[in-house]
Amino acid sequence: SVLILDFGSQYSHLITRRCREINVYCEMLPCTQKMADLDWKPKGIILSGSPFSVYDEGAPRVDPAVFDYGVPVLGVCYGLQEIALNHGGKVDPCTHREYGFATLEVVKLGAGHELADKLFEGICGEMQVWMSHGDQVTALPPHYNVIGKTPTAPYAAIAHESKPIFGVQFHAEVTHSPRGKEVIKSFVLSICKCKPNWTMETFIDKEIARIRQICGEKGRVIGAVSGGVDSSVAAKLMHEAIGDRFHAVMVDNGVLRENEAIQVHKMLFEDLGVNLTVVDASDRFLTKLEGVEDPEQKRKIIGNMFIHVFEEEAAKIEAAAEKELEENPKAEAKGKIEWLLQGTLYPDVIESISFKGPSATIKTHHNVGGLLKDMKLKLIEPLRELFKDEVRALGRLLGIPAHLVGRHPFPGPGLAIRILGPVTREQVKIAQKADTIYIDEIRRAGLYDQISQAFAVLLPVKAVGVQGDKRTYDQVVVLRAVQTEDFMTADWYVFPPEVLRRISSRITNEVAGVNRVTYDISSKPPGTVEWL
Ligand code: XMP
After folding, report:
1. 171 is catalytic
2. Residue pair 15/387 in contact by the 8 Å Cβ criterion
3. Taking every pair of C-alpha atoms in the chain, what is the biggest distance, in angstroms?
4. Distance between CA 5 and CA 354 in Å, rounded?
């Protein structure tokens, strides 16, 4: 496996992706990691880029032990500069900073330099690369050779004359360096000699063994499921590992999609055998939400009530187990609930461990963070090594149906943040009906998988219309559909007009109280994905 030391570049996690794509396990740790404290032995180390200049005050420095660790090292961008500085080279600000495409001329050193030439194995002449740097190497460290240059960067790729230490100024990990993945592959497979044996099947076996070891013979785990991909996949994996000692709880908060609780029960409990309790708390939630307009207030009510209901249910599960033991002391005693399952994914882990530069943006997390504090449970996070598409692949292998595995995200506060103005039971019904029609029609048109997220929003305004020769004064539904990679930025989806026409006429015909349907053509920014 490969260790990636993160110096805070926005591209660091892409290095992880590229390694995973060639089936090599890798782990990313902050650049402050001391090699002496590492409790596993990587076969290679990659130093990432950084928003810092090596000369900035407080610029992160690599542990020099990296270079004596005895495994190959590849520095990318800032990583290259760290290599140069650590070995007696020079780094200076570029006279003109370089952002964007550049043409790299690969320099082959020939006989006697087989190791150095391995990094660009199979690549000759020129290749297009993506640069993003303000400093560059201006003097080669002793015992290093140039293996690639651009018209403005004479030391754009360097290699030690005999040790497996390499540096590249360009970002090999981004797709804008089309042959970058070949470079990473050469480093990881040919130079580090990693075995490409990290597959989802091996992940499942390893993770099940790990969960069993953590939970022991009796330990029990509780976890919330929402019907979303992550929590369903995590729940099924827990079930595979410890069977009924895992309890899934689904809280019906009254602002779920139409029939959501029934469908999740069917899928997780009936079809997949997961030990699931659905708690219908919709009345409690809707009573608390009645008339609430402010979006943050809605979120708070739902978040707090959720914790409350979940804790009540955990106590019930615990009490039932104790009673069972009292009545039948010979029964195999189940242990206490010690663990809380969370469907945390790798991007969230990266976000929390990555080295933060001064300009680091803080992402708002939407998960149920409050639970742990109050319940004194230890966290178990079986998906914490995976990216979203890997979770989907895992879900498919675990037998979760395709339509669920490919589902769009659905926010925790549910339809409450898609009903503008006060939340009432009537408004929830209207929003549910419109949402069902919208999503049905998108699926029927075969467009669901091209869209990252689609939903209907109910506006709190009324407009005049005419239906059946009668004047109406009814509500407006907004359709939203976006395409996005990471939900940080998003663009609106261009529907074929006939699909929009069908959705509009079905909603106005079938949903009482709505006489207009509009389509949201705002990107993010300046809009957000949700309306609240
Ligand atoms: P925004 O509206 O911030 O949405 O552009 C980005 C993504 O986050 C989801 N979202 C939420 N998810 N609780 C959640 O669990 C929330 O309060 C929440 N607000 C937004 C949104 O659906 C989109 O996928």
Report:
1. yes
2. no
3. 89
4. 9
Burial of 367 per CB tally in 10 Å (0-12, 13-18, 19+): middle
Q: Are 6 and 37 a contacting pair, CB within 8 Å?
A: no
Cα 362 to ligand 1 centre (Å): 15
> Computed over its alpha carbons, how large is the radius of gyration of the chain?
27
pLDDT at position 277: 97
Q: What interface predicted TM-score (ipTM) does this complex get?
A: 0.99
Active-site residue (options: 171, 239, 247, 265)? 171
Of residues 182, 129, 119, the one with CA closest to residue 153: 129
Does residue 77 have an active-site annotation? yes
Place of tokens 């009432």: 424
| Stretch (H or E) spanning 94 | strand 90-106
- State the pTM of this model: 0.83
Short-list 484, 490, 465, CA closest to 476: 465
Q: How far is the CA of 359 from the centre of ligand 1 (A)?
A: 23
Q: In 10 A of CB 253, how many CB atoms?
A: 27
What is the residue-wise DSSP string for 378-424?
A: EEE-TTTT--HHHHHHHHHHTT--HHHHTPPP--TTGGGGTB-S-B-
DSSP letter assigned to residue 524: B
Measure the CA–CA gap between 157 and 395, rounded to whole angstroms.
Answer: 40
143-186 pLDDT tens trace: 999 999 999 999 999 999 999 999 999 999 998 999 999 999 99
Residues annotated within a binding site for ATP: 226-232
Whether 313 is a known active-site residue: answer no
The answer to whether residues 19 and 188 touch, using CB atoms and an 8 Å cutoff, is yes
Residues with CB under 6 A from ligand 1: 299, 366, 409, 411-413, 453, 487, 524, 528-530
Residues 6+ apart with CB under 8 A from 211: 237, 238, 241, 242, 380, 382
